[in-house]
Amino acid sequence: MESIFHEKQEGSLCAQHCLNNLLQGEYFSPVELSSIAHQLDEEERMRMAEGGVTSEDYRTFLQQPSGNMDDSGFFSIQVISNALKVWGLDLILFNSPEYQRLRIDPINERSFICNYKEHWFTVRKLGKQWFNLNSLLTGPELISDTYLALFLAQLQQEGYSIFVVKGDLPDCEADQLLQMIRVQQMHRPKLIGEELAQLKDPRSQKTDLERALETNDGPGMLDEDEENLQKALALSRHEIDMEDEEADLRRAIQLSMQGSSRNVSQDTPQTSGTNLSSEELRKRREAYFENQQQQRQQADLPGPVSHPRERPPTSSEALGSDLGDAMSEEDMLQVAVSMSLETVRNNLETEGEK
């Protein structure tokens, strides 16, 4: 691509850019094209003078501006055609019925000049590949052979006038180099206006940066970000689950202590609230099981009866002996659940005996 000559738009000098991109070199300047335009204007004036310099048509012609150029740098098709005649090149209207009857495949041509609303640009074959050398683009645009006919048809639908360049174009370095190699283009060149707008708009620069990251190193970085996000979500869910477990643990302990306070004998001292200390909980359990033992002795229940201190330790005694300030909440939950099951089982046995 670096070997391809490509003039970018300056002012309204698209005709100059079109010719130089076609010929692949700085062959024409605005001064030279202006000279051709003035020559054409003089030829037209001389033809109009043939009808009489005093005629109304001649006076009207003199008052009108030049049709071959203007102060902005625009040049007419007559100027371009005369400039190409210096190189032995001719222009044929691609849209004309005469040329269409020839049924020439566009791929067999060498170059085209396109015009729409006073803008000119070149489409040329270099080596074995076609390129759109529009001066409004930031660089040459590669056009595949299969897309060339569709590209020209699209231009026709948009109102472009297309001219076929006939004759031998001058040799150029790009044509010789591209005869031996083929180029590939990953991204279409942008319009110059788009590039300037993106340079002025920070949001567009950020979008381009993100697109570049996605195209090149983006997938890996996105995978890493996604992995970190998943870890953060997992950690958050874990923290929520821990909070839920702690809440369930506190509710289970409170319910266990509330259930035991309802079943103990009335002579057991009561405390306000449900947040009992480990010592108070141990005393309640001991009083409860001593009361249960006395009830069994009075009812002459079968089975060995021993003093609570002489029998094997129960889960309630384990709670009284092992429960301490350093006990974890998980251990407290297990003990509380065991105590609740014991309480329910003892209540069922008592009701059955009645």
UniProtKB/TrEMBL annotation:
<feature type="compositionally biased region" description="Polar residues">
    <location>
        <begin position="258"/>
        <end position="278"/>
    </location>
</feature>
<feature type="active site">
    <location>
        <position position="119"/>
    </location>
</feature>
<keyword id="KW-0833">Ubl conjugation pathway</keyword>
<keyword id="KW-0378">Hydrolase</keyword>
<feature type="region of interest" description="Disordered">
    <location>
        <begin position="258"/>
        <end position="330"/>
    </location>
</feature>
<dbReference type="Pfam" id="PF02099">
    <property type="entry name" value="Josephin"/>
</dbReference>
<keyword id="KW-0788">Thiol protease</keyword>
<dbReference type="InterPro" id="IPR006155">
    <property type="entry name" value="Josephin"/>
</dbReference>
<dbReference type="GO" id="GO:0005634">
    <property type="term" value="C:nucleus"/>
</dbReference>
<protein>
    <recommendedName>
        <fullName>ubiquitinyl hydrolase 1</fullName>
        <ecNumber>3.4.19.12</ecNumber>
    </recommendedName>
</protein>
<dbReference type="InterPro" id="IPR003903">
    <property type="entry name" value="UIM_dom"/>
</dbReference>
<dbReference type="GO" id="GO:0004843">
    <property type="term" value="F:cysteine-type deubiquitinase activity"/>
</dbReference>
<dbReference type="GO" id="GO:0006508">
    <property type="term" value="P:proteolysis"/>
</dbReference>
<keyword id="KW-0645">Protease</keyword>
<feature type="active site">
    <location>
        <position position="134"/>
    </location>
</feature>
<feature type="active site" description="Proton acceptor">
    <location>
        <position position="119"/>
    </location>
</feature>
<dbReference type="Pfam" id="PF16619">
    <property type="entry name" value="SUIM_assoc"/>
</dbReference>
<keyword id="KW-0677">Repeat</keyword>
<feature type="domain" description="Josephin">
    <location>
        <begin position="1"/>
        <end position="180"/>
    </location>
</feature>
<dbReference type="Pfam" id="PF02809">
    <property type="entry name" value="UIM"/>
</dbReference>
<keyword id="KW-0804">Transcription</keyword>
<dbReference type="GO" id="GO:0016579">
    <property type="term" value="P:protein deubiquitination"/>
</dbReference>
<dbReference type="InterPro" id="IPR033865">
    <property type="entry name" value="Ataxin-3"/>
</dbReference>
<keyword id="KW-0805">Transcription regulation</keyword>
<keyword id="KW-0539">Nucleus</keyword>
<feature type="compositionally biased region" description="Basic and acidic residues">
    <location>
        <begin position="279"/>
        <end position="288"/>
    </location>
</feature>
<feature type="active site" description="Nucleophile">
    <location>
        <position position="14"/>
    </location>
</feature>
<feature type="active site">
    <location>
        <position position="14"/>
    </location>
</feature>
